[in-house]
Structures are given as structure tokens and as C-alpha cells.
Automatic annotation (TrEMBL):
It comes from Bradyrhizobium archetypum. GO terms for molecular function: alanine-glyoxylate transaminase activity; L-serine-pyruvate transaminase activity. It comes from the Bacteria. Coiled coil: none annotated. One of its GO terms (biological process) is glycine biosynthetic process, by transamination of glyoxylate. Residues 30-336 form the Aminotransferase class V domain. This is Aminotransferase class V-fold PLP-dependent enzyme. Transmembrane segments: none annotated. Its cofactor is pyridoxal 5'-phosphate.
């Protein structure tokens, strides 16, 4: 017997649930890629992406996932042998660094921890040691989707500034843009990147990069540039060059609709929605943790992301729980990845999420914990309900 029917609910951190409006926006014929409508669509999206990143700098759209956008950032500002400093807080900055190493950069990892965010003071100390300025760029993620850690990018930006070091600061916002505040210019970020399929509620397949004046200056001398990723190649007047070939017309319609929806909701409201729903998840996990099996992967409460929560299982099998939730109840939880493979599951709360989706997911996790006899504190979903009742004003 199962209690699943109809649409499966994806509680994984990407691809995320797409609004019906976004799906419908793609159900139409392609545009003539040379038409003025096409040019206007591109211009509106580039302007709105810069607004989302909060920069006066330039934005670029690639037909790529996040891994592609990583290569876009690296190839545009690095030269062979340049040193990149990777700020570790789980899996994703490390992955960005691995791409850089494969492309010919020298990569140094500022050792972090899977259970905590990057410490800004450690970044400052490392940069102060680098008297010859051999480090050319620093990469960090705002949210590490594997560990569930939230990095205080503003504080890291301040630390870099305080050190007086000239390295470019590059930030991955794949699991946070549109969900949590991000201020590229105010926080001293030179290059930012993101993808379409997480907070931005759009199908996988678009990668976004923004660059400021300083990055565009460094770009001029970078020798890892290749034609597809190259910012300069994309600056030609001909619209065709904006995508280095045919525009991904339908994905752009989808993105247009998704950004329209975010603008209608208001970015501040979207951030607040993520804060509330993220906290609701944390209230539930905190109660479940009383059973001594489940627990937060990220130890410090203020380092937990509002977009994804990674729950460790202290020796119990997360796969059995995930399988139960999917096969019996139609909810797909995220799996533990990297160091947490086989040891954790993840609940995504990013993008097109609302109270019934989150409370439903928490309820299903609790059904699974009961059905599988996994010890846990009782009343986790109830705690989430109480929290929302107290904090979503009538
Ligand atoms: C998902 C993710 C990526 C990789 O994106 P893909 O589209 O899967 O290539 C990079 N960084 C972060 C923080 C992510 O969450």
C-alpha cells in the first residue's frame, strides 16, 4: 500500500519545483532569434540579473549548468599558473577549485570543515601572509548545498578588504540567489555566478555570471579565455553574440516568467518567506534531534542556510528513509553527498516553496521515521506549525 498519487514532490536542492506559470511560459513557438522581441527579451533579462546580483557590473547568460558557469568565471579572469584560494565549507567551493586546477590554475584550499561556515578572520590572516600577492582570486560559495552551511559573504568581503590584498573575490550563489540577500557591489564581490534551476525556479540549463569593472580589467590579460565563455566575445553589437550562437529561447521565456514572479512577490518578501520556511524546517529537525539519532550537520545555528537543511543520521540508514518517503509518500528528499554520502539526507526549501509544501514534507519525514522505527523526538512537524503560526502575522 502507498499513499502516493499524482505529482511527485521534489524536496531536493535542485532542480527544484517549477511554478506552472514558468512551465506554461515555454509552451509556445520559438522566436526569430534576430527579431527585436528577442533582443528585448535578452536585454530585460541581463538588466534584471544585474539587479538580482545587486551590481552595476555586467551580466552574462550561458547555456550551461552551474559547473559551466564556474568555467565561465575562471576562464575569463585567470591565466595559466595563477593561484586561486578556495574557501572550504563543504563540497562546492572545492568543486570550483577542481575545475580551476584542471584548467591550469594553481589551487590552494583554505582548510575548512564540513560542519561549519568559512571563518572570515582565517581568510584575512591567510591573505596578510601572501605579501607578494601570488593569490589572484578567491572563491567561496554563499550556501554550500552539500553541508547546508551559509557563509557570511559580507564578512568575508570585509576581511579581504581589511587585508589590503588585491585578489578578485568570486562568489557562487547557485543555491541562494533569489532566496537570500546578496549584495555584489556592497559586499566587495568582483565576480558572481548562479544557475537557473534552484532558487530561480527555471529549468536546468542556464548559467549566470556577473562581473564588475575590476574583473573586466583583469579579464583583458587573462589567457585561459576560450571563445564560448569569453566576455569580450559577448559584447559585440550583434545579438547573436550574446549567446555565442543560437539563443536558448524557451529557457529565456521561462526565466523571464520566473523573474517576473519574484518581482511581483518582491525580493524582500521572497527572502522573508525563505527565512520563515527555513526556520520551520529547523524547528522540526531540532525536535527530532532529541531522539539522539537525527541532528543538524551544521553545528552553529547562525551558519545554517535558509535554502537547504542537511540532517545527519548517526549510524542509521538515510537511504531507507528516503526510499520510504519517495515510494510510499511521493516526496523526494535530497541525498547526502560528498563526505556525508550514506550518512545524511537533505531537505530543500528553496525557490517555489510554500507552507503546504514544507509542512507536507516535514510531515512525510515524520511518517517515515515512525514507519521505520527510527528514534526521534516527537512533535517536530507540530513545532514547525507552531512557529509559523506565531511568526506569520494574521
Ligand atoms: C548545484 C550547485 C552547483 C552546481 O550546479 P550544477 O547546475 O549542478 O552544475 C554549484 N554550486 C552550488 C552551491 C550548487 O548548489
Amino acid at each position: 500500500m502507498t499513499v502516493r498519487a499524482g505529482r511527485e514532490f521534489l524536496a531536493i536542492p535542485g532542480p527544484t519545483t517549477m511554478p506552472d506559470e514558468v512551465l506554461q511560459a515555454m509552451h509556445r513557438p520559438a522566436l526569430d532569434i534576430y527579431s527585436s522581441q528577442m533582443v528585448e527579451l535578452t536585454e530585460s533579462l541581463l538588466a534584471d540579473l544585474s539587479k538580482l546580483f545587486a551590481t552595476e557590473g555586467k551580466s552574462y547568460i550561458y547555456i550551461a549548468n552551474g559547473h559551466g558557469a564556474w568555467e565561465a568565471t575562471l576562464s575569463n579572469v585567470l591565466s595559466r599558473g595563477d593561484k586561486l584560494l578556495v574557501l572550504e565549507s563543504g563540497r562546492f567551493a572545492i568543486g570550483w577549485g577542481q575545475a580551476a586546477a584542471a584548467m591550469g590554475a594553481e589551487v590552494e584550499v583554505l582548510k575548512g570543515d564540513w560542519r561549519r561556515a568559512v571563518r572570515a578572520s582565517e581568510v584575512e590572516a591567510r591573505l596578510r601572509q601572501d605579501k607578494e600577492h601570488s593569490i589572484k582570486a578567491i572563491v567561496a560559495v554563499q550556501v554550500d548545498t552539500a553541508s547546508g552551511a551559509y557563509n557570511d559573504i559580507e564578512a568575508i568581503g570585509k576581511a579581504i578588504k581589511a587585508s589590503g590584498h588585491p585578489a578578485l573575490f568570486m562568489v557562487d550563489t547557485v543555491a541562494s540567489l533569489g532566496c537570500m540577500p546578496f549584495e555584489m557591489d556592497k559586499w566587495g564581490i568582483d565576480v558572481a555566478m548562479s544557475g537557473s534551476q534552484k532558487g530561480l525556479m527555471t529549468p536546468p540549463g542556464l548559467g549566470f555570471v556577473a562581473a564588475n569593472e575590476r574583473a573586466l580589467e583583469v579579464h583583458k590579460k587573462a589567457n585561459l579565455r576560450t571563445p564560448y565563455w569569453d566576455w569580450t566575445e559577448r559584447e559585440g553589437t550583434e545579438h547573436y553574440r550574446k549567446y555565442a550562437g543560437t539563443a536558448p529561447v524557451h529557457l529565456l521565456f521561462a526565466l523571464r516568467k520566473a523573474i517576473d514572479m519574484l518581482q511581483t512577490e518582491g525580493l524582500e518578501n521572497a527572502f522573508q518567506r525563505h527565512r520563515l520556511l527555513g526556520e520551520a524546517v529547523r524547528r522540526a529537525v531540532a525536535v527530532w534531534s532529541e531522539g539522539q539519532v537525527l541532528g543538524f550537520n551544521v553545528m552553529e545555528a547562525n551558519e545554517r542556510s535558509n535554502t537547504v537543511t542537511t540532517v545527519t543520521m548517526n549510524g542509521h540508514d538515510p537511504l531507507a528513509l528516503q526510499r520510504y518517503c519517495k515510494e510510499k509518500c511521493g516526496v523526494v528528499l535530497g541525498t547526502g553527498i560528498g563526505d556525508l554520502s550514506g550518512q545524511a539526507f537533505r531537505i530543500a526549501h528553496m525557490g517555489h516553496v510554500n507552507a503546504p509544501m514544507i509542512l507536507g514534507t516535514l510531515g512525510v519525514v515524520e511518517v517515515g521515521l515512525n514507519a521505520l522505527g527510527i528514534p526521534h523526538g516527537k512533535g517536530g512537524t507540530e513545532a514547525a506549525i507552531e512557529y509559523l503560526g506565531e511568526n506569520v502575522a494574521a
